[in-house]
Amino acid sequence: MAPSRINRIKDKWRVLKTTSGFKNSMLFLVFVCVSAVFWFILALNDSAQDNFNVNLRIVNQPDSVTFISDVPERLHVSVSDKGTSLWRNGYLKHPTINIDFKEYSSDGVLRYSYNDLISSLRHAFGGAATITSVSLDSLQLFYTTNPGKKVPILVNCQIYPSSGSTLQGNIKATPGSVYIYGSKEVIDTINYVSTEPLVLRNLSETTTMDVKIQKIRNARALPSKVELTVPIEPLVKKQAMVTVEAVNVPEGEELLLFPSKVPVEYYVAMSRLNDDEDKNIHLIVNYDDISGSQESKLSVAISKYPDRLKNLMLKTDSIEYAIIKD
Predict the structure, then answer these.
(1) 113 with 137: CB under 8 angstroms?
(2) Distances (CA, A) of 317 to 206, 285, 300, 301
(3) Strand (E) positions, 183-300?
(4) d(CA 270, CA 267)
(5) 26, 113, 126, 172: which sits with the fewest CB atoms below 10 Å from its CB?
């Protein structure tokens, strides 16, 4: 911006500040701000009610203790009090209840009654606050001091790759095992844990996700979730010449086949494109098909092939033959 233009703007501003209209406008804005502050203070002094999430913490818990029950991380409470108190104790302080493990635990159970909850909430929100509702009426948390038992993970997952893709290899769980905690009578009967059922459809690329361990009655698995990696690869077309084998040929005879190899076509995962799969594909003709047939050819059938080969198809479905007797 040119200096002359800046100077003109400064001159206009000096003139504007000296006008009565500008002074009246500024005075009006000051009164509006002061009024808004007084209104806000008066509003906060009125009674109000609001909902809050209260953090829940177990303190003084020994390292040898493992909770079998799920410990809630927070409570949902409804509180009535003056607006200023709600603002100070509810919004600014992030209220928290600390439950002393040593004080409330005994014989494998931590018990925290409704009265204990209300007392702790009043302490968190102030003595004048009224607790109108709480999401929990009490806490009864089971725990154990027994060491954990290491068990493997069974992946409970159904995978449906998208068209043109395939599951290449096994689904991998990380970690591959977890520790289970509970009474000795319970964990002695558990030899593995399972992930929660999972169905994945139309996967076109390798996918990684967190999956929870299925809950165990009267026991707990830690960690409570694992990372699953589902290896998905694109399918590519491949062709091969495969030898045909004659079966059920009587002793003393030999079946000559023309040609002895036929072309096949299949799809395989991209990482296995250079693998030699010919030896894993078995094609046959059946000598018994000759009996009563007027045909000069035998039908070629697919006997077996690995599951990793998809949509295996014969390019030649019949071949000529000749019988040679010893």
Answers:
(1) no
(2) 36, 10, 5, 7
(3) 193-194, 198-203, 207-212, 219-222, 225-230, 232-247, 253-258, 261-269, 282-286, 297-299
(4) 9
(5) 26
Answer yes or no: are the C-beta atoms of 244 and 263 closer than 8 Å: no
**Residues pairing with 282 in the sheet:** 304
